Amino acid sequence: MTTTSNAPAPRTRRRGGRGPAGNRGEAVAGWLFTLPALLIIGVFLIAPIALALWVSFTDWNGRNSPLFNDRVDVVGLDNYAAITTEDSLLRELFGRSIRNNVYYVLLVVPLQTALALFLAVQVNRRLLRAKGFFRTAFYFPSVTSSIAITGVFLFLFSATGVVNRILAFFSVQGPNWFADPRGLVHIALGAVGVGGAPAGWDAPGFLGVSAWQWIAGPSVAQSVLIMLAIFTTSGTFMLLFLAGLQNIGAEVGEAAVMDGAGPVRTFFSVTLPMLKPTLFTVLTLGLIGTWQVFDQVYLTRGTPAAPTLTSPAYLAYNQAFEGNEPGIAAAIAFILFLIIIAMTLIQRFALADRDPSGFGRDRRNRRAVDGGRGDGGMAQGAARVQAGPQSGTGGGLT
């Protein structure tokens, strides 16, 4: 005789909240939590950008409101034409600022990146003692006020400053740094007998600047600002590289050594490719910072070499607050924005992984990685678990 149990079946809990109503409640709660941040971003970031874009197409003089004002006329692309195509002093000033900033970027970004990577590798060495002291010492200039440290450099590189006194001790006559507008390339050409512009090179060219001025190189005064920028920013980027180095397991370096690679080969063939995401971040931040340089230029205004120090950011400030031309200033700002975006895209293309043909990204490696997320990826994960934790706390590629 068989008996049947009348015990109730166990209840299963429903996942996902209370159905569609619960999902809507979670969505509403999520929007409520993010609403303050969205309001702050919209009011203090998106709205000012949109307003500046509108101002760049108007002849607003900075008085009253640029919106709903009968005295404000839409001029289209006239502000952009005034600084790029029209034959005027304003175009020449903009061209000079672009030339100055180009040399500033070309020298500061590579040098500060190389110095930051070098410092990170040295600080990351296992045998180095007092790592905390060196990290703090290298990073300290980055947290110092840019105004204060620029004032120190103005004192050090004055005509009778410490730098010239040290050079005089070695029987070298130092220049009057912030009063010397000569370009370094012009000085080098003058040393080999080329004292003036070749025929036709002194005529106004791109953006109203002659070809002879385009190849002048950074001025003696600007070289001081370049050294200042490298000194103050390398510490910050050192920390980024240091974090990237410490994310590289010690077994990677040990495998490279077992394969017969020396320290130099290991660094350039193993360590540097694995630092590519960090390198892209450092280069991007460096490009943005150097194209937006303002503080140092503002403090050196009025010096004899000031025309060789002007940057687009300072020119925009000058046009807005001293020339009462907010439309011109907004146009300069958006051209500067387009330059930064273009250089960032070029940099991203240059650092992207490519297939053997040299064009496009390596799709085969991407497929291999995606395929490894299946059974093969699970097998690799199990092997890592069985192998146990990695040894070493820092990067082993030093």
UniProtKB/TrEMBL annotation:
It is found in: Cell membrane. The keyword Kinase does not apply. InterPro entries: ABC_transporter_permease, MetI-like, MetI-like_sf. Residues 98-347 form the ABC transmembrane type-1 domain. Residues 1-23, 360-398 are annotated as: Disordered. Residues 1-10 have a biased composition (Low complexity). Its main location: membrane. Keywords: Cell membrane, Membrane, Transmembrane, Transmembrane helix, Transport. Residues 360-373 have a biased composition (Basic and acidic residues). The chain crosses the membrane at residues 28-55, 101-123, 143-163, 184-201, 221-242, 274-294, 327-346. It is a multi-pass membrane protein. Belongs to the binding-protein-dependent transport system permease family. This is ABC transporter permease. It comes from Agrococcus terreus. The lineage of its organism: Bacteria, Bacillati, Actinomycetota, Actinomycetes, Micrococcales.
